[in-house]
Write a structure and sequence with these properties.
Order of helices and strands: EEHEEEE
Radius of gyration: 14 Å
Number of helices: 1
Helix content: 10-25%
Length: about 140
């Protein structure tokens, strides 16, 4: 499936790499498991809690990871250009022990951009979901 760690496919490093395992993926989707300790040393925490909106960053990493896996060319950076139809189901993540996943589905891709639907799950509960547009650098 892949060679090398996930961090080699992402434009992030260290504590900012939140996805540690690919649960499933295909040409149009990816489901990634989030590091079990991501709430312990997370630079996005606010007063020790993870705001649901910050989970969009983790879904953006799933988009970047998916893009790297399906690309035939060298990895290139992208800019998160738009967010649409955002639904926040919880203000903060409810539990530090929850199994979290970032799920993305490719809606459209051109040479210069792409669009994804995304959803961040905590156990079986939706935390935040929506659509994102990405422009390639």
């Amino acid at each position: 499936m892949m060679t090398g760690p996930i961090s080699n496919l992402l434009p992030h490093s260290g504590e900012m790499v939140f996805i540690d395992r690919i649960v499933d993926w295909g040409d149009e989707f990816l489901k990634g498991a989030v590091r079990g300790d991501f709430l312990e040393r997370n630079p996005l925490l606010v007063n020790g809690r993870m705001p649901a909106l910050c989970c969009i960053e983790i879904c953006a990493q799933a988009m970047a990871l998916h893009g790297a896996l399906i690309s035939d060319e060298a990895a290139r950076g992208g800019l998160l250009a738009s967010l649409r139809n955002i639904k926040i189901h919880s203000r903060f993540l409810a539990s530090e022990e929850a199994a979290c996943t970032a799920e993305v589905h490719l809606i459209m891709k051109t040479a210069k951009s792409c669009a994804y639907e995304f959803c961040f799950m905590s156990d079986q509960d939706r935390v935040v979901e929506g659509q994102a547009g990405v422009f390639f650098q």
